[in-house]
Structures are given as C-alpha cells and as structure tokens.
Amino acid sequence: MAFAASQIVRGFSSSAVRNVVIKNVTIIGGGQMGAGIAQVAASTGHSVTLVDTSDDILKKSIKLIEGSLKRVAKKKFSDKPEAGEEFIKKIVQKVSTSTDAESAVQGSDLVVEAIVENLKIKQDLFSRLDKLAPSHTIFASNTSSLSICDIASSTNRQDRFGGLHFFNPVAMMKLVEVIGTPATSQDTLDSLLDFSKVLGKTPVSCKDTSGFIVNRLLVPCMMEAIRLYERGVCTCCFYSSFKHPSSFSPIPLTLLIFCFSNLSGDASKEDIDIGMKLGAGYPMGPFELADYVGLDIVKAVIEAFKTKDPKNPLFDSSDLLNKLVAEGKLGIKTGEGFYKHK
Ligand SMILES: CCCCCCCCCCCCCC(=O)CC(=O)SCCNC(=O)CCNC(=O)[C@H](O)C(C)(C)COP(=O)(O)OP(=O)(O)OC[C@H]1O[C@@H](n2cnc3c(N)ncnc32)[C@H](O)[C@@H]1OP(=O)(O)O
Ligand SMILES: NC(=O)C1=CN([C@@H]2O[C@H](COP(=O)(O)OP(=O)(O)OC[C@H]3O[C@@H](n4cnc5c(N)ncnc54)[C@H](O)[C@@H]3O)[C@@H](O)[C@H]2O)C=CC1
Predict the structure, then answer these.
(1) Does residue 307 contact residue 317 with C-beta atoms inside 8 Å?
(2) Looking at the predicted structure, is the pLDDT value of residue 262 above 50?
(3) Active-site hit among 24, 98, 141, 165
(4) Where on this chain does NAD(+) bind (predicted)?
(5) How far apart, in whole angstroms, are the C-alpha atoms of residue 44 and residue 30?
C-alpha cells in the first residue's frame, strides 16, 4: 500500500456531479470495517475523517489501524524499523476523528457508511447527512445484506448513492463489490469503481440483490455448516480430506449427498472447519470465519436475507447462533463465539 496519487478527476461537464475529485473521505463507523476502510483510504493519500459515537471507540479504531499498519510495515520495512514507524505515523496523520457526523460530511467528496447492520439506523443516518453534505458528495454503504435502494430511499440523492462493499480484513482482501441501484447514475458508479482501484482493490459490479455476489454464496454455506453442526455430522465425508490433506481434491458429490442424508453421531465444528479448509481450499472454515466477521453481523445478515426471501429454508434462523448472540458471544471481538479466543 504505497502512497499513491489519489485524485479521481472525472471528465469536465456542466454537471457538478461529473467533476468528482475524491480527496476527502468521511467514514461513518469505526469498527472493524470502518477502521479498515479508513486505513486503506489514508494509505492511498486521501484525507480521512472517521466518525463514531464516542471518543473511546475512536481511540480503539486508531489502535486497530495502527495494529494492522504494523503488520504491513513489518513486511515492507523489515530491515528499516524507523522507516516503518515513519510510514505508520504518516498514514495515521491522514485520519482525523469525530463524533459529529453532521459536521464531518461538510467537506467530504465521499461518505462511506460502515455502522451497525440495521436498515432503520442506516436510513436515519443518511437522511440526516443528506441535508448537510455538499451536493456533489457521493454516499455509499458498506452493508453486507441490506438493499442499497432501501437505504438510499431516505435521501434526496439517489443518483449519487451506491454500495461499496469491502471484505474483512480490508487491508488484505482485494475485492470491492460496487453496487448500483436503478437510480444510481453512471457517473457515480464510475467514481466508485475508480475509487476502489485507487485504493488498490479489484472492483466488481453488482446489482442490488440480496448479498450481492459473494455473500449470496457464502451465507447459505455458513447456514448449512451451522445446521450440520447443530444436528450432527457424518464424519466419513471428510475422510478423504484427512487422508490426503495436501491434495485438496473435492469430495465427490454422490458421497456428499449420501452423507448429508445419513446424518448421525456428534457434530464437530472443528471437523467442519478442517473439512472446508483442507477439502475445499478456504483459508478459514465457516465457524472460524463467522467468529472473525462477528456473530452479531452474521445474525443480522441472515435476518435481512430472510426478510427479502421468507420462504427460503436456507435462511432459517439458527437457535445456536441466536443463543450465542444473546449471551454476547460475538466471536473474536468479545473473546468468545463458536470458539474461545485468547
Ligand atoms: C467456508 C465458507 C463459509 C463461510 C461463511 C462465513 C460467514 C458468512 C457471513 C457473512 C457476513 C458478512 C461478511 C461480509 O459482508 C463480507 C466479508 O468480509 S466475508 C469475509 C471475507 N474474509 C475472508 O474470507 C478472510 C479469510 N481469511 C484469510 O484470508 C486469512 O485467514 C487472513 C488474511 C485473514 C489471515 O491469514 P492467515 O494466514 O490465516 O493468518 P496470518 O495471521 O498468518 O496472516 C497472513 C498474512 O496476512 C497479514 N495480515 C493478516 N491480517 C491482517 C490485517 N488485518 N492487516 C494487515 N495485515 C494482515 C499478516 O501479517 C500475514 O502477513 P505475512 O507476510 O504472511 O506475515
Ligand atoms: N464484519 C465484517 O466482516 C463485515 C461487515 N460488513 C458490514 O459493515 C458494517 C459494519 O460492520 P463491522 O465493522 O463489522 O461492525 P462493528 O460492530 O465492528 O462496527 C460498527 C461501528 O459503528 C458504530 N456505530 C453504530 N451506529 C453508529 C452511528 N449511528 N453513527 C456512528 N457510528 C455508529 C459502532 O459504535 C461501531 O464502532 C455492517 O453494515 C456490516 O454488515 C461488511 C463487510 C464485512
């Protein structure tokens, strides 16, 4: 992540919106995603204002950014620790913090929202910001599962509203899904695509459908994994993966179907995770990844999918997931989720 020219200068035209120069970025929500987005935006030369509800939270956001930058600097400046320190300092200086979202958007070219996954709260936020942000400012949501159209409907700038869906951890994951609604202008989409590239990411364009591309495929897999665990799993379907861990050969479909229809014995989340890592080549198994993402987020995502597609059994809720969230066991961020974390 080198400091790069960060300006996106669009073709000149009579419309103010077409001349979008994304220099100043406001990120609302300083949790794991907002802090990550702030980090990559600052690392690519943007001036960033990070907003959250309290100074204590914002201090933790800056710590998250510093922690991630330390890992980057360790590689980039392995033999020059002082240069590494300077690199971190320069990037962190590009991030200012605020608890006042309304003022923070006033000089902003782009607002990226990464707050709690709740439609009403996101709509309330954007509706307030819409009244104060300059007319050229583009609004984007990092939602995992809510409709961009539904969120944008709270504003009077639906042509300048899109989805900008980053992946966790933002510093490492190369993909950004850029989502347009029927009302999003081509200029806005182009600006969001260009911005993603300036951040060093690879953008893909998505329609505003539940889960866009990646979560539409990941979430059913997650829910099937939880159900497998809740009702017991037939361990023989992972046998070939254990016997030949380096081969990564896919389990034959017929064997999988046989095993899924003959469930018996104790479930093991560890075995499911090993199965998906060694048998399907994922870097993390579903339970590890759910703990990494946050179980509150996973629950909110499933509920949003269910709201849009109520008859689909893939999105039926899970008693176990609901219980863990009710107990405050949200994964790595609280020290316990499906697993205990140090
Ligand atoms: C199995 C499929 C089903 C899963 C379903 C899951 C849940 C579905 C619900 C979705 C809810 C909503 C989520 C969403 O909207 C979208 C998402 O973001 S989905 C999550 C996407 N993310 C992933 O899939 C992450 C997968 N994991 C990885 O890629 C790696 O494990 C990871 C890069 C996180 C860590 O790598 P690993 O080798 O495991 O560990 P190391 O600690 O050794 O790190 C390797 C390397 O990377 C550097 N690094 C790691 N984290 C950071 C960081 N935050 N900042 C900077 N650098 C980082 C680290 O320093 C190491 O560098 P080296 O040079 O190798 O030393
Ligand atoms: N966790 C993940 O892996 C991913 C999450 N997302 C999405 O990103 C968004 C944020 O997720 P996380 O960062 O994981 O959540 P998080 O819980 O880590 O952070 C959310 C932050 O928003 C703050 N916040 C809540 N309401 C606010 C408001 N009205 N104004 C200002 N700040 C407010 C909270 O204090 C918190 O710090 C969600 O929409 C989620 O679905 C998207 C991709 C991956």
Answers:
(1) no
(2) no
(3) 165
(4) 29-34, 52, 117, 122, 144, 168, 333
(5) 18
CB under 8 Å to 188, separation ≥6 — which residues? 17, 138, 159, 160, 161, 162, 180
**Mean of all residue pLDDT scores within the chain:** 88
Nearest 5°: CA angle at 153, between 293 and 182?
Answer: 90
Locate all alpha helices (DSSP H) within 77-159, ordered by sequence. 81-93, 101-104, 119-130, 148-152
96 is in an annotated binding site: no
Do 279 and 245 contact (CB within 8 A), yes or no?
Answer: no
Q: What is the pLDDT of residue 20?
A: 64
Convert the pLDDT of each residue in 233-252 to its tens digit.
444 444 333 333 333 334 44
Q: Is the ipTM of this complex over 0.95?
A: yes
331 lines ligand 1 (CB under 6 A): no
Question: Other CB atoms closer than 10 Å to residue 257's CB: what's the count?
Answer: 11
In whole angstroms, give the CA distance from residue 27 to residue 23: 13
Name the token pair of 154.
């709270």
Residue 267 to residues 259, 278, 284, 292, Cα–Cα distance (Å)? 13, 18, 18, 21
pTM: predicted TM-score of the whole model, two decimal places: 0.90
